[in-house]
Write a structure and sequence with these properties.
Blueprint lengths: L1 E3 L2 E5 L1 E2 L3 E3 L4 E3 L2 E4 L9 E4 L2 E5 L15 H15 L5 E10 L4 H12 L4 E6 L2 E14 L2 H4 L9 E7 L4 E7 L2 E10 L3 H16 L5 H10 L6 H24 L8 E5 L3 H7 L7 E3 L5 H18 L1
Parallel strand pairs: 2-9, 9-11, 12-15, 15-16
Antiparallel strand pairs: 1-2, 3-4, 4-5, 6-8, 7-8, 7-10, 10-11, 12-13, 13-14
């Protein structure tokens, strides 16, 4: 969260697996109820409904404005950031993002979706928040995650932002994004999750909890028997091969460019991909895009004020 003239700039990365702010990560799975949930934790009360966040992940939808989930998750994310500084009322600028090739077509609709209420009162974890949403900016995913690294990006660089739903690819040449070379592929980490779960079911007739596979994604290992481990690792390696094929389709050449891999898939590629990693930068910070949105929005505010 950044401050500018009594406005809190809050970056929010609306991922399909997790919704991130500069300092928080919450799985996007949401359970909606008309009655208060039995157990406490990550509960938003808004518009006469209770939203419990953090159990599982949201299914992929190409238009994030199709339902109320991402709006409710936005309010939850704002509250989580403000609560870190014991703030319950604030003027807020929302800095958000969309996949690279969707920005121009969807940004106005997404901005209007997030700006639907100028003044919002809601309860999060039994604390009332009064939020005045003053403005909203929409930025390209991928670029935002490396905006703080532009100084080091001389020559030709490829950025691959591997999220839960999509892979966003862009070129940055001599520190400047190349708008004509931005691509989006629906081959996110969730596809790897589905493939691994199906492989376990087909091989052993067993249903494996997604949290076990997520441990492989993050740490490269999990406390399970060797036969299950080998089955899962085999599927993860197949996924990394698909990712590399996608990068090569867009002319990735490790001899001619440096590769920056961001998003939830960065650890997967680091741990399992068969590739030359000497010229690859793995951006481990899952909140990098949210932080980047804040940086870009703050720069715009300062330019306008100068």
């Amino acid at each position: 969260m950044q401050d500018f003239n009594n406005i809190k700039i809050i970056g929010i990365d609306h991922g399909y697996g997790n919704i991130k702010t500069a300092n928080t990560v919450t799985p996007t799975g949401v359970f909606v109820s008309d009655t208060e949930p039995t157990f406490d934790g990550n509960i938003l009360f808004y518009n006469d409904k209770y939203y419990r966040f953090g159990e599982g992940h949201k299914s992929f939808i190409s238009d994030k404005t199709e339902d109320e989930d991402f709006y409710a998750a936005t309010l939850m994310s704002i509250a989580r950031e403000l609560s870190r500084e014991n703030i319950t009322e604030a003027n807020v600028h929302i800095a958000a993002g969309l996949p690279l090739t969707w920005v121009s077509a969807q940004k106005e609709n997404f901005r209007n979706y997030l700006l639907r209420n100028e003044n919002v009162v809601f309860v999060y974890n039994k604390q009332t928040y009064v939020i005045h949403i003053t403005s909203c900016s929409i930025h390209p995913q991928g670029y935002a995650a490396v905006v703080d690294r532009l100084r080091e990006m001389s020559g030709v660089n490829m950025v691959a932002d591997i999220g839960n739903g999509t892979i966003n690819i862009m070129y940055i040449t001599d520190r400047k994004p190349v708008e004509s070379k931005c691509y989006t592929e629906k081959m996110g980490v969730n596809q790897c999750m589905i493939n691994a779960q199906n492989a376990v079911m087909n091989s052993f007739g067993a249903k494996i909890d997604s949290s076990i596979i997520e441990r492989f994604f993050r740490y490269g290992k999990a406390d399970i028997s060797e036969r299950y481990r080998d089955c899962i690792v085999s599927e993860i390696k197949k996924y990394t091969e698909c990712v590399l094929e996608i990068l090569e389709k867009y002319e990735y050449n490790s001899d001619l460019m440096k590769l920056y891999i961001t998003g939830g898939g960065a650890n997967i590629m680091r741990n399992f991909a068969d590739m030359d990693k000497s010229r690859v930068v793995f951006v481990d910070d899952i909140c990098a895009a949210a932080k980047g949105y804040e940086i870009i929005a703050a720069q715009v505010f300062r330019r306008r004020a100068s």
